[in-house]
Each structure stands twice: as C-alpha cells, then as structure tokens.
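Need fresh eyes. Consider my entry:
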Amino acid sequence: MRVSRIQAAENRETVINVASRLFREHGFDGIGLKDLMKGAGLTQGAFYKQFASKEDLAAQAAKRAMESASRRWSAASEANPQDPLAAVIAFYLSMDHRGERMDGCPVVALGSDAARQGIDVKASFEAGIKAYLEVLGRMIAETGGEDTKGKAMAILSTMVGALTVSRAVNDPDLAQAFLDAAAQQVRAAVANCKDDQTSA
C-alpha cells in the first residue's frame, strides 16, 4: 500500500525522534537499522525512502536530541526565573538526570561517539553545544559576570564531565559526590563572577 506524503513525513519524524532516544541509550554503533526501525514501528525497507544513510539519520537524530536538551534547559530556567542558572545546575547535576539514558544530555551520552562520526553528526553537536553556551553566557551575564564565553565553556565542561563520570561508576554515593562537587564548583564560579563585578 502506498504511503501518502503526509504519512511519510510523519513516519520520518517518528524515526528521528525514536533514533534520538535509542542512539543515546545504545550509541550510534550500538544499534542497527532493523532495531531502530522496529522501535519506530516501521520496517527496515522504509528507512531508505526516508534517509540517505544511517549517518544521515544519526545527524538528524543528534540535532533532535540537542534541541530536546535545549528545551529542557529552557524549561528548568523558566521554572525559576529569579535564579535560572541555579535551576539548570540543579536539574543537570541530579541523580534523576544521571539515570535518564534515553532522554538525558546527548553530549554525555554520545560525545565520544560523535567524535568518531562524520562532519554532519559533528555539525549537529556543534550547533547544540553552541546553543548551550549561549544560554549559559546569558545567565552568567545576568549575574554581572565578565568573560561570559570562557566561563560558560568552563561551566559546561564541568557539568558534562561530572555527569559522564557519575554514569561510569556503580556506587550511587560516589556518583552523587561527583555531581555535588561539580555543582559546588559551578556555583563558586558564578559567585566569583558576582564578586568580580561588585569589586569593579
């Protein structure tokens, strides 16, 4: 039976959404096309009508995952407009987020995989990381901090690293300690921004 253009477009979106979650859980090379398409409720044959290659899907899925993550940052900051950075830190460096392997930060889930992918996948990650930095930069600027770009990079690196290490250990107390230590360092960096502005 022939699929309408509208249904084909909906199917494509479904595959991208499902792949963005399954890639985060299994890695780009940890799941095949058959299982990806099965997860989307479609046959493997339908894949080639929608995507040029698995790498094409990986690039689209990475972009979708990064967009989803950015929306979560926005939702966290909107929930606490008085201190949006604290809200993002609390959400990101939490045990709940640590456990969200399919829906959590794609940089943590797929960062090392992305480094081995082609330019299109890397471009999706680069765009998403720049969006993270822009959000962090705005939040730091609102605290009166200077050198927002450098501080945003340091904060993002600290948060991504802590979440990554927390996922690599079995001991939940050790995982929590990494998250707490990172949160403390990030808060200290933001406090230094405020102090620098006050003394200027």
